[in-house]
């Protein structure tokens, strides 16, 4: 069966929407999930391999913690009266090359308030992000590389 | 508001706090849209509403409906899952579009400091 | 007592969300660029979805959740379409 993860996710979403486990819904959901997974396979997306599941869970928890903390930080910036802060673009050279790893990194950086993924130069493998509260560029480069890129490299490559 | 009296007191307080937190984060995020000065700063603000704001509101709905109906009501979670998947995509596309337009119009090398 | 708190909390939350939508509309009207307006529209969608969820809690009807799901889906499609247009379209104001 192609893309078991995708088929499983689709089936789960279907069952959540239908809110029942009757054989009819289960069968229909299974048919839709398998059909869409087959169609997705026709797109010839390279298969994703997750090598280190415990590390992925730990990264997920870390990201959730970071999202909560930067939510509070950005809320503070918005609420402060004319606070002085500098924002700007940061260029980060990457070692991560796996497309799924890069996609995960993009989602992590963008869903954390205060940082946003702007551009990725795939030839030089340099990432450009925009940071709302930019104090020191090298700290940001170090943070992104150590906190997110290193685990993603171990998970996907 | 008769149906909400079916909640036990602890659940009522919990749902109330969650609803307030969710709306508060969403409000601060949208306030940032007005208060921050240029586009690249503003683009960070609405993320507040779509991460923690949505999380708290979805949690409040799940707690409220699950206790009222006496069984887990989970479709609300789909909204949260969906929003966490789509927000990064829309924001990235929007920033790229803005960068492209700046480059085309101004003719100067981006990124500006 | 605790139910009184819940009733007040839901009303306050709805007022906050209405204010948030007002902020988004202000930014949408003021601009100044097209991308600012699209960003504000996206925030408006999210706030409207949250408002629907809070109405659902207030009325106890799961129907509003489905409406919120549809708003989230359409909002995503709309913002992506607008961004694509800004990327490709020759719209220089």
UniProtKB/TrEMBL annotation, chain B:
InterPro entries: PhaG_MnhG_YufB. Pfam families: PhaG_MnhG_YufB. The chain crosses the membrane at residues 12-36, 48-68, 74-95. It comes from the Bacteria. Keywords: Membrane, Transmembrane, Transmembrane helix. This is Cation:proton antiporter. It comes from Frateuria flava.
Automatic annotation (TrEMBL), chain C:
It holds the Pfam family MrpF_PhaF. Its main location: membrane. It comes from Frateuria flava. It is a multi-pass membrane protein. It is found in: Cell membrane. The keyword Flavoprotein does not apply. Keywords: Cell membrane, Membrane, Transmembrane, Transmembrane helix, Transport. The chain crosses the membrane at residues 6-26, 38-57, 63-87. Belongs to the CPA3 antiporters (TC 2.A.63) subunit F family. The keyword Cell membrane applies. NCBIfam families: PRK06161.1. InterPro entries: MrpF/PhaF-like. This is K+/H+ antiporter subunit F.
């Amino acid at each position: 069966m192609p893309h078991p993860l995708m088929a499983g996710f689709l089936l789960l979403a279907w069952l959540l929407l239908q809110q029942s486990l009757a054989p009819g819904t289960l069968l229909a959901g299974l048919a839709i999930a398998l059909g869409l997974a087959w169609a997705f396979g026709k797109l010839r997306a390279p298969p994703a391999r997750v090598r280190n599941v415990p590390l992925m869970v730990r990264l997920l928890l870390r990201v959730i913690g970071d999202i909560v903390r930067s939510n509070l930080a950005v809320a503070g910036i918005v609420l402060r009266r004319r606070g002085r802060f500098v924002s700007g673009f940061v260029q980060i050279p990457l070692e991560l090359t796996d497309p799924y790893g890069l996609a995960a990194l993009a989602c992590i950086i963008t869903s954390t308030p205060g940082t946003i993924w702007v551009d990725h130069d795939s030839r030089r493998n340099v990432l450009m992000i925009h940071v709302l509260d930019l104090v020191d560029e090298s700290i940001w480069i170090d943070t992104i590389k150590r906190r997110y890129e290193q685990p993603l490299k171990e998970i996907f490559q | 508001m008769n149906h909400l009296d079916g909640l036990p007191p602890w659940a009522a307080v919990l749902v109330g706090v969650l609803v307030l937190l969710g709306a508060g984060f969403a409000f601060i995020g949208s306030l940032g849209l007005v208060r921050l000065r240029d586009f690249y700063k503003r683009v960070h603000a609405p993320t507040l509403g779509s991460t923690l704001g949505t999380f708290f509101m979805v949690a409040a709905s799940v707690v409220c409906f699950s206790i009222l109906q006496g069984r887990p009501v989970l479709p609300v979670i789909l909204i949260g899952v969906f929003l966490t998947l789509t927000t990064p995509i829309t924001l990235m596309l929007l920033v790229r579009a803005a960068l492209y337009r700046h480059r085309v119009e101004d003719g100067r090398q981006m990124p500006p400091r | 007592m605790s139910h009184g708190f819940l009733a007040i909390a839901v009303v306050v939350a709805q007022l906050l969300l209405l204010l948030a939508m007002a902020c988004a509309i202000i930014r949408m009207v003021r601009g100044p660029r097209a991308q600012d307006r699209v960003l504000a529209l996206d925030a408006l969608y999210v706030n409207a979805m949250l408002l629907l969820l809070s109405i659902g809690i207030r009325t106890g009807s799961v129907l509003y959740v489905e409406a919120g799901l549809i708003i989230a889906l359409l909002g995503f499609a709309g913002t992506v379409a607008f961004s694509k247009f800004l990327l490709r379209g020759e719209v220089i104001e």
